[in-house]
Records
---
Amino acid sequence: MNSRILNIAQKYLKILFVVFGVLILLRGHNYPGGGFIGGLLASLAYVFQGLLKGADKQASKSVSNGLYLGLGLSLILLSVLPGFFMGNAMQGIWWDFSVGGWDLKVGSPFLFDVGVFCVVIGVSQLFFYSLSRY
Amino acid sequence: MNIVIAPILLPLVFLVVFVFIKNTRVGSPLAILGFGLQFILSVYLFYQILNLKIMVLQVGGWQAPFGITLVIDQLSAVMLLVSNLIAFSVAVYSISFVDKYMVASRFYAFFFSLVLGVNGAFITGDAFNLYVWFEVILLSSFVLITMGRSKDQLEGGIKYMTLNLMGSLFFLAGLGLLYGKTGTLNMAHLAQIVRVNPEAGLLNSSAVLFFIAFGIKAALFPLHFWLPASYHTPNVTVTALFAGLLTKVGVYALFRFFTLFIIHDREFWFLFLSLIAVFTMLVGGLAASIFYEMRRILSYHVISQIGYMLMGLVVFTPLGIAGGVYFMIHNMIAKTNTFLISGLVKKVNGTYDLHQTGGLLKSHPVLAVLYIIPALALAGFPPFSGFFAKFTLIKSGYEDAHYWLTSVAVLTSLLTLYSMIKIWNKAFLREAPSPNEGFSCVKLKIDELLPSAILGIGSIVLGLGAPFFIDYLSEMAVNMIHPHNYIQAVMGDLENLTLLKP
């Protein structure tokens, strides 16, 4: 596809999709959202790029090597471990930080969410590129 | 009790590792290491269960009817032990039979995810979670079937996928109805509700849906068509793995559901199941006798033997249940072994077709010995596991006055013997019909023979250790028929939650 409008718009849309995806991911802890839907949104950025440049060129090495997939699965595995050693397996463990007056609560479920985010990006790209090749 | 989740976590670790590793040189030893560790873990869990009887983990610290519970009881422990033994020996076998293209398409990642699903199905105490593990098994097995990218593999894979998805649909529908009626999907909680609520007969609609779902998974008689359509197409490593693990998960689910909470209307259900068992045994045995392709014969045999396991459930005495489970573990080991041997026969003779094979007794006597162990075990000859399994089942059937069922079981035994002798005669005993120079001088390597030897030793140990196993399984069967310990261990003191939904 060779459309100048889409080509220029894509540069800005890409950032928008990724930022919006990450926002949805972060918001997902207490409100609707989360890793799955955020990952779908973020993967739109790559899908747009693929539509413009052609799937074959876009099918980067990170996808075919399963980088996102492996990273996501490792994060999910990591999120199980704190509970495994500090209580019941898969139990949420929370750590309190305060950075410059901000009270941050980081917990192992967040790792799980990020893991799902990465897996969804990896898998949706895999689907998209392998389907558009035929 | 965090160790309970280890049979799920360990394959997951290796699954993640094998997303990155795609070459054979590193992959094969690492896979063997992984399955070896899993086997050691399952032996450790089995040893723990000998003393503890039951281990429970409330995942994430959520109490039983609200969260997901993982339970290893005596049935789960023995199933874990045997399935991980099979996975380990198939992993050793895969060194020679899985080419580098399959490893590059992440064969081992899907192998681990299949075993992850099987382990998960065996240890979960939650009906919906069981559905999720079934889906994990289904997805990874579909990829494994079609991995060689040939046309018949795709055909077999699509038949397999379609019919098993139907099964999942029925399972999910049954779960939905069950949740609507009882307000819980925790198996122990369901068992508790069913035992005190006089309206338990209303669960029958779910029970029928569950029967269809597990019937498809386990390849029971009118629902078995996907199995012979797909099992002869993939790489022989994959077929051996499927024969050992897949259908048995369905049978395991039947045993779990029909002892724990589908216990009403016993007259109807057990008459119905006994008819299904009779037809499954006969149809599988008769169909196997007309084929001359080794993997097809063995696939129909898988179906025929499922009937025996169901027979144990039909008799429903402690001896019957013990016999059914004993038959299941015997069959998992011996059946996988015969499929492994069929791959070796193919390697030496160049074909699975029994019209063209021959002369293996002279050229490869070790292979002949390795074949005769599982063959005699399946046919039911005394020093091997099959004799004690069939003896226990037939004795229990006879004592409980299931004369028809028992006589069909004896008859099917003859059909099994016929098929095993057919393979023995055509592939091993007779001279090769056309001496094929290229193939007959193939030397089998030690890593090709070792897995069969491991499983053969498994059959012998299971046979010679029959007193120990029968004792263990009888105690397990009593605990399954009267699951008070199971309910107590999972639900704790929450007796006031019995009627969650009025």
---
Amino acid sequence: MDKIYPGVADAIADIEDGMTVMIGGFGGSGAPIELIHALVERYKATGAPGGLTVVNNNAGNGGIGIAAMIDAGMVAKMVCSFPRSSDPRAFTDRYLAGEIGLELVPQGTLAERIRAGGAGIPAFYTPATFGTQLAEGKPVAEFDGKSYVQERWLKADVALIKAERADRKGNLTYRKAARNFSPLMAAAAQVTIVQARKVAAVGDIDPEHIVTPGIFVNRVVEVADAQQEEALLRAEAS
Amino acid sequence: MATKLTNAQIAWRAAQDLPDGSYVNLGIGFPEMIAKFKPKGREVIYHTENGVLDFGEAPPAGEEDWDLINAGKKAITLNAGASFFHHADSFAMVRGSHLDVAVLGAYQVAENGDLANWSTGPGSVPAVGGAMDLVHGAKQIWVVTDHVTKKGEPKLLKKCALPLTGVGCVTTVYTSLAVFDIVDKRFVLRDKLPSVSLEELQAVTEAQIVVNGTPGDLNVPEL
């Protein structure tokens, strides 16, 4: 078993038009910039993959990462909790022009829908959104005297993930708060593609430290000097 | 009305009520200010939605690690005993009643505890973040807010007019003029600025204020 791919372009080469792509990260923390930019480069060169549905907590910042995907015109819809940032123009302009769709999901519900997708749970009940606009049209049920809203699982064709360490079997560790949605997305996608700062020999990562077991991971690319989205944005701004 | 508290003073007042040994989530923006006014000697562990428990102050400028941020995307540091976890565990802490207090800002609060703080209606990009999860689960939901809007309209209402974040969820409201506990679907006055009369307070509060006994004085230092 060897899940290592030689480069980011190879790892994302078969992502198709209209797919749902989960992208790890919360703001710039955990954003797999090199995988995203490889996808943008491919779209600019070939016109594919377009019409994507992108699942992330946010909807891009500045002109890099998910914002670069939106700017390129390859995103049909965002599924996110907070489509705002310090520089949200890429999404905001297209949204207000009616050129991009938005499914707004509370952050905890987004996490749990992705978790459910990876865990084979088609629906669940949560107290979040009960009595609000975001619950309209959804089944409501009472448990122990309190009302809850039914939410459905969220799955994806592909997940793009940034990890700290990985091995050829796909075992992953993360760095600090860059973990966020990535372990959930790795399980919820048909094909999980990982960029890792360091590919370690199998056995070098202590089993007690593995956060995402390799069963959830399909492809691993080593990107040793990965860019950090927030650091990149701040460097550009100054 | 001559005086009102600044946002920092409202945050200071709320901070005085942080229980020792509690787990607390401070909403992004104004509520985040509460941390710096925590009374000395009390241990409070802060939770942030993006998967950190027990974070500390912001690092000095130039020493930020942008993989280590809070829900407001600001750089943070870790206290000894901090932990990382994924988003589903983070919101298990929220919905599963493991947090003692969550503090949020508000556009409007109704006397039954309804909160509106995520949408001012059509025409803008809607964004909800973790607010709709946070208002369910934490044992106490505090709101920190100016007593009235920038236009001087009441924010403490009989019924919210703006889209709701949660139904019947708010337990305490710290405003620029007073502190209220929501009890049996009424705003019960706990403290008010000594310089503001009850009549003046009611005049800028749409909902009926309930007074049980003599309200305390809202005394806050200059900050």
